[in-house]
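User:
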Amino acid sequence: MLLKKNKKERFFIIMMLAPMMAVLISFYLYPTFYNLYNSFTDSSLLGLKKGGAYIGFDNYIRLFQDKAFGRLLWNTFFWLTFVSVSLRLVLGVLLALLLNSETLKKFKLTGITRLSLLVPWATPAVVAVIAWRFMLDPREGIVNQILLSTGMVDQPIAFLSKIYTVWPVVIIIIIWNSLPLVTMSYLASLQTIPETLYEAAEIDGANDLQKFFHITLPQLMPTTLVLSLLLVVWTFNNFVYVWLTTAAGPGSYTNVLATEIFIRGFIDFELGYSSAIGMMMAAMMALFGMFYYHYLAKKEFSEII
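Assistant: Predicted structure:
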């Protein structure tokens, strides 16, 4: 009887998991293996029905020999990922401290401020980029109008056409979109820190700066680790904001790995080559995930669990 009962329970569990497994195989595993297969072929989007001929590692060799590959890595790792993620974490902590301060609580501004913070997060990417492009327009944009009226510049600045302004603009737009999530996450963590820790520090004569570095930051570390992982993964694969803002321009100055996949696959129709770039990105993220867990987060996560 017990054996029959266990069989029924296992069958019930399998039936409950079957729909999710079907979705996982259909929308994740199959595309991944198909993309891996394509990366070893010369398949083209124009001849997709015929399929491509097997060419071994030629696409990967071509990728590493491409002179623009170094620029793609630099743009993706430094500008798109490192700079934007670092700034969001720093600004998120500062804004969370401000929202958690007694000053805002005194004037009852916390509710309004928190609500206003959610606007960028809720705004669709297309709408956000159109609004930013309009504000930064050299002829009619409000940013240039303010700069000209205050005498800060003598002539309008084409922010999205100059190589010294285009990356800062892209990063500002990305930060504007996801900073609310970072801020609210840190704010929730700040409110879980026991007040007794700060009271004990005051008794020991610690000032505000010492309390921040020795109490607040260590207590925020679990949140920082989770946010860092999420932001790196989301930003590393970011296509929408870069493409909608600059279309990888001026020239290819803001071209990153995600936009290069789109250009090679859907503009140049080199499906095999774009698949190779996609697999390289997946491998990089897998290596980052293993390094992140083993060297950075393993101890912290084990303490949480």
